[in-house]
Amino acid sequence: MAAPIIELRGITKTYDDGFTALSNINMTIEPGKFYSLLGPSGSGKTTILRLIAGFTNATTGSILFEGQKINDLPANQRKVNTVFQNYALFPHLDVFDNVAFGLNLQKRPKAEIKKRVLDALKLVQLPGYANREISEISGGQQQRVAIARAIVNEPKVLLLDEPLSALDMKLRQDMQYELRELQQRLKITFIFVTHDQEEALAMSDEIFVVNDGKILQSGTPVDIYDEPINHFVANFIGESNILPGKMQADYQVEFVGKTFECADAGMKPNEKVEVVLRPEDLDVTTAEQGKLVVTVDTQLFRGDHFEIIGIDDDGNEWLIHSTNPVRGGKHIGLTFEPEDIHVMRFGEKEADFDARLEQYEED
Amino acid sequence: MKQTKRFFMIPYFIWIGLFVVAPLLLILYQSLTNNQHQFTFQNYVTYGTSSTYLHMSLNSLWYAFLITVITLLISYPAAYFLSKLKHQQLWLLLIILPTWINLLLKAYAFIGLLSRTGSVNSFLTFVGIGPQQLLFSDGSFLLVATYIEIPFMILPIYNAIVELNPALINASRDLGATNWQTFRRVIFPLTISGVKAGVQAVFIPSLSLFMLTRLIGGNRVITLGTAIEEHFMTTMNWGMGSTIGVVLIVMMFIIMALTNDRRKKRRELNDDEEN
């Protein structure tokens, strides 16, 4: 593990009116990785970014940059640059001067500024746009200028505050690829704030799921998707069927009145838990062969899959993603593998969760 | 739709015609006639060749310039700090309030304050350096004129500052700018429109101040405004008065043109052709 470039230790942020925006945030950011802060609006993810950028101060705790405490270092002396949500491009300057802003402040030689600005514009695929006014270019192009303006200063960490949220769907997906590519080419750390779970899953090396001013879970996209720590994370990251259940013994869980084999362990016998089944892990079969039987309620064609909502005998709704439509009888069977079942304990902390996972995965 | 739009514009056109276009044409007509109502350029010749009028014009420009500069120097910081205060509406009201009071009343109030027996001189006497001659001096004229014009400068600048996107200030600091650099490179250029509007609102009326020159300046300060008043009220030379009026209007247009936005010229980037 490389030496961390940024560390947040025990950060809390309380506003004058008593509102707690962040409580006990601990984060370790390693160089050269793509991180996402993922959470709903008002969760505090942008506040974390502003703390790192230096636009706001932590009430308690410390922020370390390459091991040095930078709590009191003003924003203009930090070696990070930000891509703002609505780009915050300077409307009185053209594209070239926007990108050159930081270099002009550093009083670099004219020729060097020109070369670096034009290189940065090439990097974000806007060669030939240097002379345009900001008002003359589209939202997607402004987005690229904002990225060029930040990376031209060669920051060690690039902070991105929901930079894609104002773009349309198609452009957003293109930019996801480009951002990821850019990060890998520049080999600098990206910290990307978003409320869009797909964005975070697609681009990140590591995701921090934030809600109510706390980090609920951190890990690789696959870890978080496959092993959500609690109801909130399971619901927020991807679509899920979440049901109350009871852990009868290790590797045995009971829900909807039946006992199933599962891959989870390390809990007390008969502990009340929640069970997650991802819609794409449910396979449609005949009613006789199914582990569960549901009645099809609605079926929607989503382009790449069919979204089926079925209701079982107890009245639970089941969301199923299937590549093939259900034909014929309205009763269908559902099957799934033991490892498709994910069991969540109530109120489990991330450290305990990780420890438990590690413990029984070694068995 | 277009019909009704035109219909509702009729009162506007009547108003503009009666109270803007007609008076301007009348002034132009007056300036081109003598007392016998004959067509002549004599008034303009007189204006152009007389050193008195030239002096007066320069005087007007000079004092209007001074008033504008002093007002701007006070108003920009004031508007800036105002935009950071908590009860902005209340402070704005306090700034606007004096503009609702008649100019004459304010002038008389200052006469009361600045006269030999006024409260300022009482204070100066108390600290042992008075009484002084304060009224009827350039200083008192500039003081009162500045006081009267300040709200018209603060308001447009304040509006421009409030409209400024705070993210731009963060962006500037993020890119390494100090507070002063942020002000010089971002805040000021983006609020220059407010400054220009304020300069127009202050400089143009200041060109033709005449009541203050008389009441506070004691006719020591003679501007074109004073001259117009003299020609219309005392010497009854309406032609000459109108000529000066036309000169003032031309000056105003020049100021407007100078303070209007112009397209900035584009940089040469020869190795980076537009595609």
Automatic annotation (TrEMBL), chain A:
Keywords: ATP-binding, Cell membrane, Membrane, Nucleotide-binding, Translocase, Transport. It catalyses: ATP + H2O + polyamine-[polyamine-binding protein]Side 1 = ADP + phosphate + polyamineSide 2 + [polyamine-binding protein]Side 1. SMART domains: AAA (SM00382). NCBIfam families: potA. Belongs to the ABC transporter superfamily. Spermidine/putrescine importer (TC 3.A.1.11.1) family. It comes from Lapidilactobacillus gannanensis. Signal peptide: none annotated. The gene is potA. The keyword Transmembrane helix does not apply. Its EC number is 7.6.2.11. Residues 6-237 form the ABC transporter domain. This is Spermidine/putrescine import ATP-binding protein PotA. SUPFAM superfamilies: MOP-like, P-loop containing nucleoside triphosphate hydrolases. GO terms for molecular function: ATP binding. Gene3D superfamilies: 2.40.50.100, P-loop containing nucleotide triphosphate hydrolases. Part of the ABC transporter complex PotABCD involved in spermidine/putrescine import. Responsible for energy coupling to the transport system.
UniProtKB/TrEMBL annotation, chain B:
Keywords: Cell membrane, Membrane, Transmembrane, Transmembrane helix, Transport. Its main location: membrane. The chain crosses the membrane at residues 12-32, 61-83, 90-114, 134-158, 236-258. Residues 57-259 form the ABC transmembrane type-1 domain. The keyword Transport applies. CDD domains: TM_PBP2 (cd06261). It is found in: Cell membrane. InterPro entries: MetI-like (IPR000515), MetI-like_sf (IPR035906). It is a multi-pass membrane protein. Belongs to the binding-protein-dependent transport system permease family. CysTW subfamily. This is ABC transporter permease. It comes from Lapidilactobacillus gannanensis. The lineage of its organism: Bacteria, Bacillati, Bacillota, Bacilli, Lactobacillales.
